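Note to self: keep these together.
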Amino acid sequence: MNKANTTRIYLIDELRGLATLLMAVFHFCYDLSVFGFLTFEMNGGFFTWFRFLIVTLFFTSVGASLYLAHNAKIQWSKFITREIKIGLGALFITVSTFILYPRSWVWFGVLHFIVIASLMALPFIRFPKSAAVIGVLIFILYNVTSWFNLHFLWVTLNEPLHLPKGTQDLTRLIPWLGMVLIGIYLGYKKFWNVTTLSPTKAILPLRWLGKHSLIFYLLHQPPLFGLAWLLNFLLH
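Structure:
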């Protein structure tokens, strides 16, 4: 593998860190809504688009990272280790939400999506331009048709898997797989040589957060909910 393929693009860590930070803000707003501090609407309002921004940053980072890590040769050991780590994180989310929210536990959230989407996107590493075209087409078809989705799969699996009618988090494979494919193209283009959001040291905490986003993702919610509870206790 040549040097160009092993050089880390810090922009990816920074975008992932930004997504992680915005996700914490998103979840804290939800926690505040539980105690009546604000109204949290997800039917086309502000928080719908806020979540759109967050998952876009996450999933383009997933695609770009896949390309940069495996474009010369697929590093199977590295890929499988990553899949296992994220898969265990997804299992943790499912089990913990099943205990806390037995009627709306998470059966296919962000981490579940990343595991499956990474597997599906891996073959496109060899065809980054095709990945971009297919990624855009996925979003177009999803938005202009009533049939280009996986609703039939939910109908098939709903009863045998005893899936809940509602869920605390649902990340749809379609259309978000398209964003991972677009991310592959961004990695192929190396973000047009944009390597960082800022050349100053002020960006380092965000970069650090991006490198440790999985552990932060798994552990951030209890402290934030505790803070919202404390605010409610002190102010109400």
